Amino acid sequence: MHFRGQKKSAGDVSLSDALDADGEGEGLALLDTIACDQDMLEELSRREAAEQVRRAVDTVLEGREAQIIRLRYGLDGAPPMPQREVADRIGISRSYVSRIEKRALGKLRGRFDP
Question: What are the DSSP calls for the chain, one per residue?
Answer without folding.
Answer: -HHHHHHHTTT---TTSEEEE-TTS-EEEHHHH----HHHHHHHHHHHHHHHHHHHHHHHS-HHHHHHHHHHHTTTSSPP--HHHHHHHHTS-HHHHHHHHHHHHHHHHHHH--
